[in-house]
Amino acid sequence: MPHHVIVSFGRDQEFEYKLAAAPAAEEARKWFDHEFTALECDVATPTGKILAVDRILSVAKYAGIDRFRNQTAWAEQFAKYAAALLGRDLIRVDVDSYTIGY
Length: 102
Hints:
The chain is of the alpha+beta class. Helices cover 47% and strands 20% of the residues. It has a four-stranded mixed sheet with strand order 2-1-3-4, covered by helices on one side.
């Protein structure tokens, strides 16, 4: 299934990725776990449980717009693994609003 992932940091600051296929969800979980830890992400949740969408949003937020601009290989991995983790054909990661839309 083809995937289309959009990562938005606000008006006129969007990055689009079109992917032919996504890897296995387990591989995606491991990648996001690693990046979440490496970027020292912090998410306050009332239950203490960090959901997949929280990991995706936090990694995008803590990585920042410059990483998406300047490290295209990393950004493409982010998109590929987000698609694998969420299993949707269209995903919009809105970092400013801290939301994910389908």
